[in-house]
Amino acid sequence: MSLKSLQIIDVREPDEYVAGHIPGAVNIPLSVFAARFEEIDAKKTAYMVCKSGGRSMQACEFCRDQERPNVVNLAGGTLGWIAAGQDVVIGDSPG
Questions:
Q1: Are residues 9 and 26 in contact, defined by beta-carbon separation less than 8 angstroms?
Q2: Banded model confidence at residue 5, pLDDT cuts 50, 70, 90
Q3: In Å, how far are 2, 4, 26, 44 from 53, measured between CA atoms?
Q4: pLDDT (tens digit per residue) in 9-61
Q5: Catalytic residue ranges
Q6: Residues 6 or more apart from 17 whose CB is under 8 A from it?
Q7: Where are the domains of the chain?
């Protein structure tokens, strides 16, 4: 399974996202998450990511409160992803 087939939601602010994100991740900042969470496909598991895991956990909790339980917090966040030597995309495109 490729990363691009997964539903990865990056909840960091746009400037953080542009600086480097997981390939295929879509940016829905936590600051506007409540207004935009309906953009997330409810039929697929959503993998939430931020810098280290705090904001993505908040996004997961919000989704669960909205009866959208199929969410996963990516522990370690983007920092962990980079530390593991994984590729990142620079710019505003999901890549």
A1: yes
A2: confident
A3: 22, 21, 16, 20
A4: 999 999 999 999 999 999 999 999 999 999 999 999 999 999 999 999 999 99
A5: 50
A6: 10, 25, 27, 29, 92
A7: 3-83
Q: What is the pTM of this model?
A: 0.94
Alpha helices in 1-95 (DSSP H): 14-19, 33-36, 54-65, 77-83
The residue whose two tokens read 């506007």 is 32
Question: Domain 3-83 falls in which CATH fold?
Answer: Oxidized Rhodanese; domain 1 (3.40.250)
**Are 57 and 64 within 8 A, CB to CB?**
no
| Predicted local confidence at residue 85, as pLDDT | 95
Distance of CA 76 to the CA centre of its chain: 12
Cα–Cα dist 80/44, whole Å? 24
